[in-house]
Amino acid sequence: MAETLFSKIIRGEIPCDKVYEDDTSLAFRDINPQGPTHILVIPKAEIEDVSQVEEGSGLMDHQIAVANQIAKDEGIAEEGYRLVINKGANGGQSVDHLHVHLIGGRQLTWPPG
Ligand code: DGP
User: 11 lies in a domain?
Assistant: First the structure.
């Protein structure tokens, strides 16, 4: 896959408001927040989108576990939050590096636009 700006964020070449990091994942605040809390959880590995995730790899388990822990740390877990993964053009994906949106801190509506 072609490198995206998220690779530069992972390498620290583009600054971000980091909230979590481990060997395989990074989480940082979205530049265009859709709620009081809007954080992106990304794998450090260059994976283009959710369709590229290998079953049994444990990658999504970890991404979701990280998002759940951040929701607790941000104090939004009790009231609820939303995890979103956009895939491709119709899915609204604008950065071709797999990422989970963690959005919360307000009442979210459904269905999405
Ligand atoms: P998506 O549309 O699902 O591909 O989400 C990409 C998100 O990435 C979008 O909500 C805005 C965010 N974003 C794009 N560029 C940057 C950046 O340079 N820094 C940060 N923190 N977020 C970015």
Answer: yes
- Measured from the CB, is residue 109 less than 6 Å from ligand 1? no
Per-residue pLDDT of the chain (113 residues; tens, 9 = 90+): 789 999 999 999 999 999 999 999 999 999 999 999 999 999 999 999 999 999 999 999 999 999 999 999 999 999 999 999 999 999 999 999 999 999 999 999 999 98
Strand order in the sheet with 25-29: 18-21, 25-29, 37-43, 100-104, 81-84
Does a structural domain hold residue 111?
no
68: CATH = 3.30.428.10
Domain count within the chain:
1
Q: State the closest ligand 1 atom to the C-alpha of 86, by its place in the atom list counted from 1.
A: 3
Q: Indicate the pTM of the whole model.
A: 0.98
Query: Residue 62: exposed, middle, or buried by beta-carbon count in 10 A (0-12, 13-18, 19+)?
Result: middle
Which atom of ligand 1 is nearest to 91's Cα?
Answer: 3
